[in-house]
Amino acid sequence: MFAAENGLKGDPRLQAISDTIRVIPHFPKPGIMFQDITPLFLNHKVFKDTVDIFVERYKDMSISVVAGIEARGFLFGPSIALAIGAKFVPVRKRGKLPGKVISEDYELEYGKDCIEVHVGAVQQGDKALVIDDLVATGGTLSAAINLLECMGAEVVECACVIGLPEVKEHSKLNGRPLYILVEPSELIES
Length: 190
What we know:
The chain is of the alpha/beta class. 28% of the residues lie in helices and 33% in strands. The protein contains 5 helices and 10 strands. It has a 7-stranded mixed sheet, with helices on both faces. Strands 2-1-10 form a 3-stranded mixed sheet. A hairpin with a 2-residue loop joins strand 5 (101-108) and strand 6 (111-118). The longest helix has 15 residues, at 44-58. Its main location: cytoplasm. Belongs to the purine/pyrimidine phosphoribosyltransferase family. This is adenine phosphoribosyltransferase. InterPro entries: Ade_phspho_trans, Adenine_PRTase, PRTase-like, PRTase_dom.
């Protein structure tokens, strides 16, 4: 579901978010149109508006865990978690977390990867939100869902700032709810 379809149609905050995201052609490899969110953080109002939109959506959903996917999910997740009274759990790439972890391998648009979560970071019955900056095929989100559910959490929804067109047809989320703020068609190449 896109924010514009959920009562935010015409909300100037969405346009401001779109306006700050730039497209970098052929990064990190030829053929990739990289959606760069770093300019969003240079404008404190747009950054705050982005977090506020997520907080408005999740504040009354009894979410106890906000799981942020490395690395850009870390930029939004802690702020959202603090605002809604939830704990933040980092979902990291292989070998980045000390101690006992559980792992999940998954396919990317251009390769393979693995993510991990600390054992015990999520408890049976926790209600979780998974946050990342972008969703393309849903592979990373799906891997995060698998990790959280393996530990007994219920994934309430996944949320991303940007949703690529592929997610509509090729999503690996198997019907799991997904909330997206903007689409690349709204973004301008820089």
